[in-house]
Structures are given as C-alpha cells and as structure tokens.
Amino acid sequence: MDVSIEKYNLSIENIEKLKNCENIKNIDNNLNTNWIKLFPIEDNKNDTVDDDDNNNEDVIDVDEQSQAVVNNNVTLSQETEEFFFTQSVKAHDSPAPVKINNDKSKLTDTISRIAETLEHKNGSLDYTHVVNFCDADVIIIVDTLSKELSLTGVDNLCKSLCDIEEAQAIYWIKTICSNLLLQKIIDLDKTSKDSRIYSTIIGKIFTKYPDAVQNLIIAPILNFDLKNTSVIEGITQFYSQQQRSNLILLISDNVKELKVWHISTLLPLLADIKIENKDKDSLLGLLVNKASEFSNDKNYSKYVLKFIKLNCPYTEEQKSLLQEIVAFNKTIFSSSIKRIISNMYFHRDLWHINN
User: Fold this and answer.
1) Residue among 332, 312, 250 at smallest CA distance from 286
2) Domain shared by 80 and 144, yes or no
C-alpha cells in the first residue's frame, strides 16, 4: 500500500532539528580517533559528490542558534571521550609510597631515640615511647634494639618496662622475653660474665611477670643445648615452692628429650619436689629414654634415687620403667636403687616403698 506524505507539512522547528542532525554528520574530523576505531565511519564521498554544492549551501544557511547546538554537541562528545579513555589509566595508577616511607622514617627515628636514651648510665624508657604502637611495630622495634643495645641498654629497657603500668607494658614485656632475652641467653658463652647481669634482669621481670618469663623464656629454652646455664640457675632461685612444682610440669609438657644441662643444673634444683601422678609417667619416660646414655652420670643416678624415694607409690608400669633404668646404671648409686625397688611391696594395686 502506497503512503503519500504530500499532504503533511513539517513545522519550522522540526525542519531546524533536521538541519542540526545533518550538520552533526559532518564533524567527523573533530572526533577522537579512539571513537573512530570503535565505530568506523563509512566513506560516503562517492554517494554525495553530486550533492556537494547543495550541502555547502545548507551548512552556510544554518543560523547561529543551530551552530550553537552543534558546538555544544561537540563539546559534550569531547568531554565524554576524555572521561571514557582516561578512566582505565586512573583506575590502575599505583598510590604514591610517600606515606609508607614517612612511617618507616618515623619508626627508624623513634628506635634511634629510644636506643640513645637507654644507653646512658641511668637511661630510662619514656612512657610516650611505649604507647600508640601496633604489635607489628613493637616487634620491629624490639628486634632492632636487640641488635643495637649494649647490656646496659637492655638492663635499662627492662627496668623501665617493669616500672610502667602493666596494661601499657605487657606486650612489650612478652616481645622482649621472646625476641630479645631468649636469644641472648642461648648465645651466652660458657665463660661469659654477662650471665649474672642477665639473671638479675630476668629476675626483675619474673617478679612482676612470672608467666611471661616461664612461658616465653623457660619453656622454649628447655629444648636448646645451652653453653651457659648460670642464667637458668639464677632464675630458679626466684621460684617459690609452688612455682617449682609448676616448673616440673613445664618440663614434662615441653621437653622432648633430656639434655646434659637438665641433669646437671635443672633437675637437682627440683629434686625435693613431689610430682603429681599425671606428670610422673612423662618424667619417667624422659629418664628411661636416656638411661643408657647417662648410665655413668652421677647427677642422673642421684636424681633417680631421690625421685624413687619421694614419688611413691608406683603403678606396675612405672615400676617396670624404674627397673629398666637401674638395669643400665653403672654408678655407685646403682645398688641403692636396686635395693629400694626389690623391697617394694604391693598394696591396693600400687607398689610402695618400705621405710
């Protein structure tokens, strides 16, 4: 069906809009090349050669209002192009590391000030140096001080923290015990004169923070081969009778195997402590595992003898372990140990010693 549009007339306003659309077609040269790559423009030169004169006349005849619309459209197009093609770059820009560098610089300056202050004869840690640090910063500070401070500086550091309120000092104390003092004790040579001062330092901390010393110094150090045991001897002097019982528990729970310094230094200090039955099996197991290696060690044999006398009665399995120990023993204490075991009597499912 044919439709005739001869009877329809366009308003002047609509004619002007059509003229604007015709003009917008001709601003291709102003477009960003990125848009042209995305949306290729067909070459219509061949189709429009014959109409060039008419088109030029149309463009010239556009009034000022129409040209303003075109200019606005071009401006909007350019702004849109700038936004679209610059966003991907901005989104992947790396943040400037200025703040990080500043933070590191401030931390380094703080460590230098702390170290300089503590190295004085009566130097002490300023309270403001303790607060407002995150856990990670405290670890960095303590690790650095561990390398830089002399024994005087370490002593002043620990004294200062013991004088500060516990809420502010506790994390510092824990980090100093695990990251500074523990390694200092492990590294001590056998003849080092520093051991006495370290014993005093740790003794002060133990008086105020016994759990920190026991869990972060004593417990982990039990499995190291110490060259100098003077500090351990000094620390145990600060233990009350009840705390020594806890030390036996610490040994049974943490020691993987008995070491020479356990036999020569630690166990003799605990020989008068009666052991709870739940810890007896653990300690007997440690003793049996070293029965052959320490068969000629008098300190080992002396401790076994005291252990047997103090910690009866024994289960059938515990008595068998004692018999295994004495079978390897070659010291002068061997006969006494054998006699005690052979004279045990069985009563109510347990083996007792005749007094």
Assistant:
1) 250
2) no
